[in-house]
Amino acid sequence: MQATLSPSLPALDDPSLYINRELSWLEFNRRVLEEAQDPNVPWLERLKFLAIFSSNLDEFFMVRVGGLVQKVQAGIRHGSGADRMPPTEQLERIHQVVRHMVAEQYECLTQEVLPALEREGIVLRGLSELSEVDRRHLRDVFSREIFPVLTPLAIDPGHPFPHLLNKSLNLAVLLKRPHHDERLFAVVQVPAVLPRFVQLPSQGPGYAFTALETVIRMHLPDLFPGMELDRATVFRVTRDSEYEIDDDEVEDLLKTIEEEVRKRRRGAAVRLEIEADAPLEVEQILMAALDLDSSHVYRIPGMLDLTGLFQIYGLPGYPNLRDPHFTPQPVAEFVQASNLWAAIRARDILVHHPYESFSHVVDFIEEAARDERVLAIKQTLYRTSSDSPIVRALQQAADNGKQVTALIELKARLDEERNILWARELEKAGVHVVFGFVGLKTHCKVALVVRREDDGIRRYVHLSTGNYNPQTARIYTDLGFFTCNPDFCEDVSALFNYLTGYCELPQWRKLVVAPSRLQAFMIEKIDQERAYQSAGREGRIIAKINGLLEPAVVQALYRASQAGVRIDLICRGICALRPGIPGISENIRVISIVDRFLEHSRIFYFGNGGNPEVYIGSADWMDRNLSRRVEVVFPIETPELKHRLIHEILATSLADNLKARELLPDGSYRRVIPEPGQELVRSQERFLALAAAKAARRLSELPASAPIPYAKVRALQERRQRNGQKT
Q1: Which of 498, 627, 631, 677 is the most buried (most CB within 10 A)?
Q2: Is 514-673 the same fold as 332-504+686-726?
Q3: What are the structural domain ranges in the chain?
C-alpha cells in the first residue's frame, strides 16, 4: 500500500537514513563468524569459517582501515559517505567492534572447535603439551628444514628496526649478554615459505600438529648462542595496501601498477597483533618502531593468524566433519549436442555455478583454441586461478595462429601481481594483451569467439556474473550465459572495440554498460515500478546483489517504497539502506545469505506492469561499480530461462529460512526463524538437489538410440574430480 508522506519525515539524503559502509561490512563478517559458531555446521567447516573470518579482516585492515588512516593523517574531518560519519569516529567504532568479534572468534576456536577436532583425532598442541617424542622429532625438523631459513635480526643503533613484511608472523625476543644488565632486543621472522603447522609423530589414527612459531620459539638458543634469553613474543603487522594512481601521469600502466605493488609491501602499519600476555615493554618497542598508537594494537588470546587453519581444513578424509560432497552437474544441452557450437546455436543456455559445471566455460575457450574454423577469441580476465586452463587455452589459440585478445585488469585488488604475470606470459605466446582504461577497472566478464561456418561468419558469446576462475567457480555462486544471438554478438563486439581502441559509445542493443549508462538505467527501472504503483498497478522489485551503497540508488528505492512498491533485496555484504523505517522504507526487506558457497551472482527483477523483466550481470549497486568500473548487465529474455531465474533462483533464495539473516533498521541482522509448520528451506542445499535432478531427468528423457556422447560425460566427471583435488 502507498505510504502517507509526512512533512516531518527526514529528507532522503539525511545521514540518519544510511548505514556506514565499514560498519556494514563488519556485520557481514560477523555473519561469517556466526557460521563458525553454528552447532549445525560440521566441525572442519566451522574451522574453515574461522579462517575466512581472519582472512576477511586482513583485507579489511589493509584496504578499508588503511584508507581511513590516510584520511585522518591528511586532516580530513568529515565523512565522505552518505552517512557522513567522520573518519576518526569510524576508526573508533571499527576497533570496538573488531575487538569484541575477535574475542568471540577465539572463544569459539579454543572452547568448541579445537576440543571437538581433538576428539576426532585432529590435534593442535601447544609448547606445554609436547611429549619428549614430539620434542626430539621437532629438534630434527628444526635442524634440517627450519634453521637454515631463519635470520635473527638484532635491533640496536647499528641495526635499525627491519621492514617487516605485510601479514608476516614474527618473534620479538628480549635477551641479554651474560654478566651484563643491558637488555637487548631482536626480531626473528617466521618464514612464510614453510607450512604454518609442523606435523608431529603419529601415535595412532589421526593427525597432530604444532605451530611453526612454537618450534622456532623452542630453539631460539640456536639462533642466539651464548645469550641469555628472557622472553619471546609472537606478533604480526598488517600494512596499508591502498594506493591511488594519478591518471594524468600514467604513461605505461603495467609499469605503474608494478611500482605501486612494490610500494604496498612497504605501506604504513595499520594494525599490530600481539600475544595477550606480551610484556608491556615489547608492545611499546613495537608501537614506537611501527609508529602506531595503542588503539591499533590487538592483544590476541591465542595463536596469531588463523588464516593458517586452511592447512588443517585441507587434510584428506574426515567426510563426517565436512559438508556433504557434491558434484557439479553437466548441463544437458551441452552433453546432448553433437558439439558445443551446435548446442549454443540451438538455444540460449544459462548455467548456475557451482551447482552446474564450470567445465562448460573452460570447454568454450579450449574448443575455440583447437577448432580450425575459429578465427578469433576475445576475453576479459579480472581474476583467474594460479594454474588457469583458460590462460593456457588462450596461449594455445595464439600458437595455432588465431587472433587472440585478452583484456587483463591489472588493478584487480590484491591480484595485481598474478595478473601482471599472466599478462607477460600471454604476450610471450603472441596474445594481444591490453589493459583497458587508466581511470576505470574493467570488471565485466565477457568472452567472444568468432567462427567461420558453412553459412558465413558466426559469433558466440559468454557473459557471466563471476570470474573466469575454475577454483572459485566451485565455491562461488554465479550465473553464466551462452548465446549466439546477433544483437548480443554485435554489442559484445562493440564493447571490445570500445575497450581496446578509440570509438564513441554505440547504441547498445542488449547490454547496459557502466559507467556511461548503468546507474541511470537502474534508477529508471526503479522509478518505473514506482510509477506503476502510483497508477494503481502493482510495482515489484527484487535484486540479488553483493553490495548496496550508491546513495542515488538507495534514494530511488526509498521513493519506490514510499509509493508502496514491494521490494526484496538479497544483499550478501554491505548495505547502506535502512529497511523498515516508517514512511521511508517499510516496504523494503533486506536479507543476507551466508552458507557453504559465497553468494556472488547478481540478478535484477522488475515487475514491469505484469510483464517481468530480468537482468543479470557483473555489477552491484555500489558507487564503484556504477561510476568507476566498466560493468555489463544484460537481459535474460528467453522465456524458459527467465522463468528459471524468477521462480527457481530468486524464489528459492527469498524462501531461505535456515541460512538467511534479515537486516534491521539499526544496521544489525537477525536470523530468519521458520514459522511453526513452515517448510524448511536452505537455498544452496535445494539448488544442489535441483541441479542433480534436472541433469538426471534431461538425460533420461533421451531415447536409447540418441547419439549421446557418454564419454564426454565421463570426461567431465574426471575433470571435476581433478579440479576438486586441486581446490
Answers
A1: 631
A2: yes
A3: 15-321, 332-504+686-726, 514-673
Please give the grid coordinates belonging to residue 658: 535456515
Please indicate whether residue 353 is annotated as part of the active site.
Answer: no
- Name the grid cell of 148: 637454515
HSE-up (13 A, CA, CB side) for residue 153: 16
Closest alpha carbon to 429 in 447, 461, 405: 405
CATH of domain 15-321: 3.30.1840.10
450-464 in b/e form (b: 16+ CB < 10 A) is bbeeeeeebbbbbbb
Pairwise CA distance, residues 536 & 365, whole Å: 49
- As a whole number of Å, the end-to-end CA separation of the chain is 49
Measure the CA–CA gap between 512 and 490, rounded to whole angstroms: 13
C-alpha separations of 341 from 98, 349, 464, 496, 629 in Å: 51, 12, 18, 21, 31
- Residue 702 CA to residue 518 CA, distance in Å, equals 42
Whether the ω angle into residue 515 lies within 30 degrees of 0, i.e. cis, is: yes
Catalytic: which of 352, 360, 443, 462? 443
Query: Looking at the whole model, is its pTM more than 0.85?
Result: yes
- CA 472 to chain CA centroid, Å, is 9
Contact between 459 and 450 (Cβ < 8 Å): yes
Least confident of 126-135, 173-182, 218-227, 608-617: 173-182
Q: Compute the distance between CA of residue 724 and CA of residue 695 in angstroms, rounded to an integer.
A: 20
Q: In angstroms, rounded to a whole number, what is the distance separating the alpha carbons of residues 639 and 700?
A: 23
What pLDDT was estimated at residue 7?
64
Which amino acid would we find at residue 124?
Answer: L
Answer whether 166's CB lies under 8 Å from 238's CB. Answer: yes
What residues are paired with 661 via a beta bridge? 592, 671
The Cα–Cα gap between 122 and 42 comes to: 14
Q: Is residue 599 a contact partner of residue 572, using CB atoms and an 8 Å limit?
A: yes
Q: What is the CATH number of domain 332-504+686-726?
A: 3.30.870.10
- SS3 assignment for 192-220: CCCCCEEECCCCCCCEEEEEHHHHHHHCH
Q: How is residue 355 written as a grid cell? A: 551447482
Please choose, from the candidates 649, 718, 597, 122, the residue with its C-alpha nearest in 3D space to the C-alpha of residue 323: 597
Using CA atoms in the order 151, 154, 159, 162, what is the torsion angle rounded to 10 degrees?
60
C-alpha cell at 703: 531415447
CA 199 – CA 141 distance, rounded (Å): 10
Q: Which residues pair with 432 in a beta bridge?
A: 405
Does the domain at 514-673 match CATH 2.160.10.10? Answer given as no
- The answer to whether 387 touches 422, Cβ cutoff 8 Å, is no
- Given the DSSP bridges, would you call strands 456-464 and 445-453 parallel, antiparallel or unpaired? antiparallel
Compute the Cα dihedral for 440, 446, 449, 450 and give only its sign. Answer: negative
